[in-house]
Amino acid sequence: MDFADVSASERPYLPPAVAVSTVAFALNPPSGALVVEEGVRHDAAGETSATLWIPLVRRTRAPYLGRWALPGGPTRWDETLADTALRSIRAAAQCTPGYLEQLYAFGGVERSADAQRLVTIAYWAMLGEDDLSTAVPGGAEGGSTGASTAEQAGGRRWDDPRVDPPRADPPRAEIGAAIDESGRADANVAWCSADALPDLAFDHSAITDYALARLRSKTEYAAVAHRFLGPVFTIGQLRAVHEAVLGYAVDPANFRRQILARGALIDTGERETGSPHRPARLYRFSNEAAPEFPDARPQPRRPA
Amino acid sequence: MDFADVSASERPYLPPAVAVSTVAFALNPPSGALVVEEGVRHDAAGETSATLWIPLVRRTRAPYLGRWALPGGPTRWDETLADTALRSIRAAAQCTPGYLEQLYAFGGVERSADAQRLVTIAYWAMLGEDDLSTAVPGGAEGGSTGASTAEQAGGRRWDDPRVDPPRADPPRAEIGAAIDESGRADANVAWCSADALPDLAFDHSAITDYALARLRSKTEYAAVAHRFLGPVFTIGQLRAVHEAVLGYAVDPANFRRQILARGALIDTGERETGSPHRPARLYRFSNEAAPEFPDARPQPRRPA
DNA sequence: ACAATAGTGTCTCTAAGACAGTATACT
DNA sequence: AGTATACTGTCTTAGAGACACTATTGT
Fold it and tell me: Domain residues for B167?
């Protein structure tokens, strides 16, 4: 079932195609990755500035040929929407995100100009430092470009209400942004600071803005920031993540109290070592009581 | 382009179809409407209990033949997703909602069993008392079943980032829940209390739960409740809406202060008349400063 | 007069923010 | 000793909730 032989003038009358686009956030680009900043391209060096990074994919066909776009592509017949999002992230960033959430469905009739009507379901994701191969958090060492698409989705829960195991071999569709599955550091994949994105293809700039707003919003009222970190972390590290995401300084004392008052952090009893100051307690995150729906908000105080 | 002649065994391999389902909330069912409560069916009478009501459509084909389902159906080639939601609401409730917002995209692979893969974008909507024909707010008068699909979408903004004017006559697709466009009180349309819904077709019960959670959530942190009312209302009426939606009593004094502190209510200078007590001020709602994205939340106080 | 709701005043309590002060590691 | 961060204490302030009290209509 391929629409390639349908004449261009009939394409707008076809049933809409379904594609997924993903905004994947990381605290740092993986070491050795191609970095693009507002059109100027250079290799990753220095710059441990506290911004967020997003992997982009270069368009290899019209429309928007050569422009940067969000990773994504059409859903396969045997994939959930979340699975498609995961696959596109793995293809672009060579890792599996620690968090994935649906963002919005874009279905305007004019989104892809003359091409077939396209409905895009946007997702956003968080890539932990652990997930990104073996990147050194603060450094610029041109390390190994993490091999073997690590299948590390152990026991994680995606937001899609029902998730099915994949079935047999599917046929490939040909619509929308292509997903590169070759692995390996790809010249068509670049990492870009969320603060200085170039103009993206389609409406992907708007999607990215929306995703950034959602990430900031959830960082303020929900407990998601820890997913940028490993399984064990200090409150200071967590605070640094909040500051990077929110873009402003947070009082250490008040942050500590508020984050502990939520009751989601579990003291491991161990301490950080090797720091040039008083060692901090190490905490784990308690995954109990996940919200029923991905964008549910905490219950406000309600009068009796 | 019709998939009807594709054999059933090939259907799961087709590209997914795109449909829309809508959860439309109203404070009261329209007078004269068919009311269904947990399978027991009877005409609307008395019962001005403070619950929310939702229009449902009976399935007229397999799967789930005969079960109640959310209004909806496939998107036409020339419609935005929001337009499809509007059309399905107009067909089921014979009115245009005062608010419409995208809820979630459901795309699990097994949602429609053996049928073609179906991606459903769910919307939720608020139907104002004004919108529902000429229903009497508190009463059970079997009044006129409001005629003529009133086109009253004057100057309202929908959430879809880009909205286009519809084009020419589209062909009809044949997948998913049928939309009845005959108008008139339909035996296949029933109103049901959100508290006592029967088991719905597909995953529509879960969608409804999600929509209800979102409505309650937005009622608490955003200013949406006024859309259940007319253009002018008293704070007491607005409080009654909050109580109906949230399901618990709200202190009148504190509610007044909080709602006024938001700065979105404009005193018209006029007063309510005919009430057996001190007349209340009448307010309008200020539509300025609509959020950039439909589910944006108010900015919390941020330290300098 | 009475009932009923509109609207105001004010007390309490919680939580956020600001910031001073103490604790404990490494150099 | 000096520095840097961890952690604790506490003052101030804003806002939520509870609730008493006054205002103004119709019956």
Answer: 8-217
